[in-house]
Amino acid sequence: MAFSPSKPLVLPPAIISGFALDTRILKQEEAHHIALAAIGTHASNPTTPYIEDTDIISALAVLRDSDTARRWSARPPSTPESLPTTPNTPRGPDLTALKASCNTYEKRLLPGIIPPSSIRTTFSDVHVAPATISALKLLTSLSLTRPDAFTYGVLRTDSIPGLLLYGPPGNGKTHLAKAVAASSGATMLSVSGSEINDMYVGESEKNVRAIFTLARKLAPCIVFIDEADSIFASRGESRARPSHRETINQFLKEWDGMSERAVFLMVATNRPFDLDDAVLRRLPRRLLVDLPTQTDREAILRIHLGAEKLDPAVSIADLAAQTPFYSGSDLKNIAVAAALAAVKEESEAAEQAAAKGEAYTFPERRVLCPRHFEHALGQISASVGEDMQSLAAIRKFDEQYGERRGRRARRAWGFGQHVVKEEAARVRT
């Protein structure tokens, strides 16, 4: 499946503006959602062998109106002013006034700002270990909602400046950060390596400084740094360039000088073992976001399929049993693929009826049947394979630096030629 090599992709200004495609770079998860929806739209009415701009437009329109889109979109179609609020609902900063006060480097980070009134993700939308959620609430929400408790005693002199979320990819680290921001009423500032690293000497350090100056203006604010290994990779590596070392040094300097209690850093990575030691020392709380167990998978599937109508023959418990090694993101993709299969089936039935000269009425709500999930399972495989080498490295990191370090004896790790049980693929068993 590909775009036509002779026809450029053209999107209407309303679509470009609605999804802020002209001001920001799509995250991998967003692009994946759009591509999957476009493929499904094209498959339901394949007039050409190529995906057309109309397929992309239809996919964006569908996602814009769906609950799923509101969970992953940093800029939902409804503006903060049009959202229902109450006197106790935090609305976030005045972005117009903020932009006027920002310098050039701070303005580059503005697309990453997510006001609390725009965040739709809550802790009920993310299924992880209860201990992880409890720790997140304790470490972040309290420091943001009860700053007075951190103005004296040991919490004043030795407060925790940030925390590390680590684990296999696709298990909800970004959603957890959004849920924390929503529950605490804090503005979220999402930052990636591409927004910090710069090819010109000295520019990366200025970008780092802008993160902290902008966060102070947004306070209370949660600075979320995703794929942190691209920014904080160990300076001891032979591949480390002088500019990379200077970037980390500047980050550590700004971090140590941060006296604002209403700013909290959340760092997420799939490769915690690559992080610089000095960065790890400033992240004393490290929370594992592990692959879901079978019980967890059932709960995650219920979250994503909660608004869908299921055939009585569909067993979510059986689906959970059939998906070992699947991450939360993989399970979401299964739900999306099954729904698209149902839509495609309805469209084909309408085409067949039209060919026979018969009338066809689309059902008020699609019904997901076992065959749709069988089709989805055939398309979507686990992104974390049984032989994924980084799992061994994550497990070793967890035993050495995680919250449960020292609580169990270490053991050798290696898949070899043995049959791997589901529990063995998890970082903690």
Automatic annotation (TrEMBL):
Any single Pfam family the record assigns to this protein: AAA_lid_3
GO MF term (any one): ATP binding
GO terms under cellular component: mitochondrial outer membrane
Recorded topology in the membrane: Single-pass membrane protein
Biased composition annotated in UniProt, kind: Low complexity: 80-89
Stretch list, region Disordered: 69-94
InterPro entries for the chain: AAA+_ATPase, AAA_lid_3, ATPase_AAA_core, ATPase_AAA_CS, Mito_OM_Translocase_MSP1, P-loop_NTPase
PROSITE patterns assigned: AAA (PS00674)
Keyword tags: ATP-binding, Membrane, Mitochondrion, Mitochondrion outer membrane, Nucleotide-binding
CDD domains: RecA-like_protease (cd19481)
Keyword Membrane assigned: yes
Protein's recorded name: AAA-domain-containing protein
